[in-house]
Each structure stands twice: as structure tokens, then as C-alpha cells.
Design brief:
Keywords: Repeat, Ubl conjugation pathway, WD repeat. This is WD repeat-containing 38 isoform X1. It comes from Pelobates cultripes. InterPro entries: WD40/YVTN_repeat-like_dom_sf (IPR015943), WD40_PAC1 (IPR020472), WD40_repeat_CS (IPR019775), WD40_repeat_dom_sf (IPR036322), WD40_rpt (IPR001680), WSB_SOCS-box_domain (IPR051983). The protein has no helices and 28 strands. By secondary structure, the chain is mainly β. Strands 1-28-27-26 form a four-stranded antiparallel beta sheet, with no helix packed on it. A four-stranded antiparallel beta sheet has the order 2-3-4-5, with no helix packed on it. A four-stranded antiparallel beta sheet has the order 6-7-8-9, with no helix packed on it.
Length: 297
């Protein structure tokens, strides 16, 4: 039986995790929901046991703030990107570093795995996006076209295309077989800071212009323009079924949107600081949100 999206969540904070010594820039939940990954300006990555909140690993290696982190969909690896211009691929079980990828020449702001876990995309201040083969750590392809910093990226759920969002106010859609963008999505009036695909192929993009745009990627047309945040957007996450979209920003709020109607259905508990990142649990019933001061589920 279909459930009203507003019934999915309460506004109760379940668990706080507080061990980083700098702002939390990114967080992720493992595919089996047993682990939580966080990274920070303190140059460290932490791996937590999600149910108990116990810190499993303090992962070191980066020499600058860690800007982005993510688990591979198969759950065996995680990746991180840093202001030190490197990307690292790590094993989940023992936190050993498998590859240090150094083809970027400036800060790397975003990293994401392909759905089959065989490839990794990274991008950042050098205005390029690099596709890596995970097994070998080899540079497969470099995408050029943005005219300013690339702050965010995402693979489509089918793995056939990639989206990148930039400070040039555009979102670019790329086909893996070409180094030219398939579409350039325009409309934002500020830096594009987050992008996210749904299972149905919709693409959401958030911006410093305080709006979220939901796109039809096949047509390159706008489906919804979502307004309600009163600060820069920092993170977006679709629920697994694609019905809900979570958004966070500098206004210290986590908002939930019904993507069938294009309406905000719930505002979760106010955080104590700007909310840098959010992620749905695999079940879709929990949200992990990380802020400048702490992170919580």
C-alpha cells in the first residue's frame, strides 16, 4: 500500500557522532547500513558502527581537508578526495589505502563511484572531471568544458551518464563514451553545489541561489523549481524509491520534498550549525546529516 511521504519521518534525532576536530564536509552510509563514513577539515576520515555509534577507524593519509567521501555500491571500498589534490581509494574492512590518484592539480571537491563499483569520478578546482578505473587506478578519461570550479558530481543509477555541477552556474551531463557534454542545463543564478539522480532518471541540482531544480535529463527540461531554503544549498539525496528528496543548506535546515508534487512536506529538526551534507539510509527511513559542528542520524 502506498504511504504518504510525510509519514516516512519523524523529527527525532536518533544518534549524534562527535569526534572530528574540524567541519564535517561529507558523509555516507554503507550499502548494508552497518557503517557510516565521515570526512572533515581535520584531514581525517572516520568509519563508525551505525547502530552503536562506536568509532571503528580513524583513517589518515590525506595532508589537507578531506572534501568528499563515498562507499562503493558493492560495499567493499570507499573513496575520498582532498584539498591536497589527491583522490584515495581504500578498503572498508581494514581501511588500507589501495590507490593514491594524483592527476588533479588543484583541490578535489567531489568523488563518486559508478553503480557497478568499477569506476570512480573525481572533479574539482582544476575544472576537469576524471574517470578512473577502480581496479588499476588508471585514468580512463578526462572531461573538460566547465569554465569554473566543479563542486559536485553524480552517476546516473544506470551508470550510463554522469552529471557535474559547477561554479559556472551550469550542470553538465556527460556520456561515458564521449568527452563532450550531452547537455548543458542552465537556469541557476549561483554556483551549483550539489547534484543527485533518482532511480527514474530525474536529476536534482542545488545552488547558492537557494533553489533546487529538478530536471528531465532526456529532454533537458525543468520539471520543478523548489524554493524554501533561505541559505545556500549544500547537499541533496533521493530516497531509494525516488519519491522523496532531502536537501540541506546554510540555513541549518533539512527539508524533505515530495518529488511527485514538487512540494516541501517536512522540515526536520534544526541543526546547530550549517548542514553540509545529507544521505538517505538504504531503507529510506533514516537520514544522515552532517554539519559544521557535528553529524547526526
Amino acid at each position: 500500500m502506498w504511504k504518504n511521504p510525510s509519514e516516512y519521518f519523524t523529527t527525532t534525532t536518533k544518534t549524534f557522532f562527535q569526534r572530528h576536530k574540524g567541519e564535517v564536509n561529507s558523509c555516507a552510509i554503507s550499502p548494508d547500513y552497518n557503517l557510516i563514513l565521515t570526512c572533515s577539515d581535520d584531514s581525517r576520515i572516520h568509519i563508525w558502527e551505525s547502530k552503536t555509534g562506536e568509532l571503528q577507524h580513524k583513517v589518515t593519509g590525506h595532508t589537507g581537508p578531506v572534501k568528499s567521501c563515498c562507499f562503493s555500491p558493492n560495499g567493499s571500498l570507499f573513496a575520498s578526495s582532498s584539498h591536497d589534490c589527491s583522490v584515495r581509494i581504500w578498503r572498508v574492512d581494514n581501511a588500507d589505502c589501495l590507490h593514491v590518484l594524483t592527476d588533479h592539480c588543484k583541490s578535489v571537491e567531489t568523488v563518486c563511484f559508478s553503480p557497478d563499483s568499477t569506476h570512480l569520478l573525481s572533479a574539482g578546482w582544476d575544472r576537469s572531471a576524471i574517470l578512473w578505473e577502480v581496479k588499476s587506478g588508471q585514468n580512463v578519461k578526462t572531461f573538460h568544458g566547465h569554465t569554473d570550479v566543479i563542486q559536485c558530481s553524480a552517476f546516473s543509477t544506470t551508470g550510463s551518464s554522469i552529471a557535474t555541477g559547477s561554479w559556472d552556474y551550469t550542470v553538465r551531463l556527460w556520456n561515458l563514451q564521449s568527452d563532450r557534454p550531452v547537455r548543458i542545463l542552465k537556469g541557476h543564478r549561483g554556483n551549483v553545489s550539489c547534484v543527485c539522480f533518482s532511480v527514474s532518471g530525474m536529476l536534482a541540482s542545488g545552488s547558492w541561489d537557494k533553489t533546487i531544480r529538478v530536471w528531465n535529463t532526456n529532454k533537458g527540461s525543468l520539471i520543478f523549481l523548489l524554493k524554501g531554503h533561505c541559505g545556500w544549498l549544500r547537499s541533496l539525496s533521493f530516497s531509494r524509491d525516488g519519491i522523496l528528496l532531502a536537501s540541506t543548506g546554510h540555513d541549518k535546515m533539512v527539508k524533505l520534498w515530495d518529488c511527485e508534487k514538487g512540494k516541501c512536506i517536512k522540515v526536520l529538526k534544526r541543526m546547530i550549525d550549517m548542514v553540509h551534507t545529507c544521505s538517505f539510509s538504504p531503507s529510506g527511513t533514516l537520514i544522515l546529516a552532517g554539519s559544521a559542528g557535528l553529524y547526526q542520524t
